[in-house]
Design a protein that fits this description.
Elements lengths: L2 H10 L12 E3 L5 E3 H9 L23 H19 L20 E5 L4 E4 H10 L5 E2 L19 E3 L4 E3 L1 H5 L7 E3 H54 L5 H50 L4 H12 L20 H31 L15 E2 L6 E2 L2
Antiparallel strand pairs: 1-2, 3-4, 3-5, 6-7, 6-8, 9-10
Length: about 375
């Protein structure tokens, strides 16, 4: 059956309400077919009893019976569709069967001897004919598993050169090298990978702890700033215009320092979060690689993951929480200076007022206390 035929058949068996294959199909008097539940629910949701497709209105709700013949056809279609989906074609990123002609089905196994991949159908016949061939999960580029020099299967690992080799390579170019089986090499490298994973985990935990420290420091810093603002408001509560202006300037300065601290903290947290993301990504790649069954893929991917990622040392990083220590004292000192200036100004004003109101007073010794001794001009008392 052609693809167009499949599409046409599926459309014929689709309910126009749920857009799925009919379940308990029934037909309305106008000749249109729907699922029994779908058309019943449609009529329950509206005051008019009409066909959802042609909009023909019925005086009363028709009595609907399941079309047994049509129901059997739809069930057969479902079974056909389900059975065809079991042997589906290879999708993007999947390995296709090398034996299939025309539509390539998805491969379920690859043979390292035949250098070919087989679907579920063809792997059965292959396994029956070649019982000793080595089968692995489907992989691409099977040629990469063969030694390009000797055209033999890569079965060993050279620890000296950190490369996969064949048996002939181990007896020629790598004769004096340390040669082990791929399984032993993978086991040893997985041990190293486990240690690297632990280091990555510690690095992640250290950075997460540092993030929490920064957040706590930022919280204390903000609390300290709010406390300083409250103290400044108490200090400048009873003062006039200059004090209000000084208070506003002080608050603005504290908030600017706090904003600067928050901006610095956000940059540090962003940098740490980025490193955490990269470390988690590296950890995920390591975890996936640690479970890899493909030796070649493992050995080829291990060098790039075994080297610790380049990260910044955050151990000496600290965030100062007391950003505003001494701010109020400085502000009060400036205020004291202004108050002193104001006092001097007031004193000068008062003195001028006193001088304007001054009179020439002469004390009369006869009316003063007999113990009072006056100066010769009678203007100042002298005490002996």
């Amino acid at each position: 059956m052609s693809v167009a035929g499949n599409v046409l058949s599926e459309v014929q068996f689709q309910c126009s309400i749920c857009l799925d294959i009919f379940t308990s199909p029934v037909s309305t008097p106008c000749g249109h077919t729907f699922c029994l539940v779908c058309i019943g629910g449609y009529w329950d949701s509206t005051n008019l009893c009409q066909c959802p497709l042609c909009k023909e209105t019925f005086e009363k709700r028709p009595k609907l019976c399941i079309n047994r013949s049509f129901a059997e056809i739809t069930e057969l279609f479902k079974k056909t569709r389900d059975s065809s989906s079991e042997q589906r074609s290879a999708g993007p990123g999947e390995v296709a069967c090398d034996v299939c002609t025309g539509l390539k089905l998805k491969a379920v196994k690859s043979c390292l001897v035949c250098l070919a991949s087989y679907c579920d159908k063809h792997i059965t016949s292959h396994s029956a004919r070649f019982t000793k061939h080595k089968l692995v999960d489907p992989v691409r580029d099977l040629e990469d598993r063969m030694c390009k020099k000797h055209e033999r299967l890569l079965e060993l690992f050279c620890k000296s050169d950190q490369a996969c080799v064949c048996v002939l390579c181990s007896k020629t170019d790598h004769r004096a090298h340390s040669i082990v089986s791929m399984e032993d090499a993978v086991q040893e490298l997985k041990t190293q990978l486990g240690k690297s994973e632990e280091e990555i985990q510690h690095m992640i935990q250290d950075r997460q702890k540092k993030v929490e420290e920064i957040k706590q420091s930022l919280k204390l810093s903000k609390s300290s700033a709010e406390s300083e603002i409250a103290d400044s408001m108490q200090v400048f509560f009873d003062l006039v215009s200059y004090i209000n202006r000084s208070q506003a300037e002080l608050i603005e300065m504290i908030e600017e320092k706090q904003k600067a601290a928050e901006s610095q903290a956000e940059r540090l947290i962003a940098a740490l979060d980025q490193e955490i993301i990269e470390l988690k990504k590296r950890n995920s790649e390591m975890e996936q690689l640690s479970h890899a069954k493909d030796c070649i893929h493992f050995l080829q991917s291990f060098p790039s993951l075994s080297t610790p990622p380049h990260t910044k040392d955050w151990s000496d990083l600290t965030v100062h929480t007391e950003l505003c220590v001494g701010t109020i004292r400085v502000a009060v000192s400036h205020l004291e200076e202004q108050i002193e200036k104001l006092k001097r100004k007031l004193s000068e004003t008062e003195l001028r007022q006193i001088q304007q109101n001054a009179v020439d007073v002469t004390l009369d010794p006869s009316t003063a206390n007999r113990w009072l001794v006056l100066s010769e001009d009678g203007k100042q008392p002298l005490y002996q």
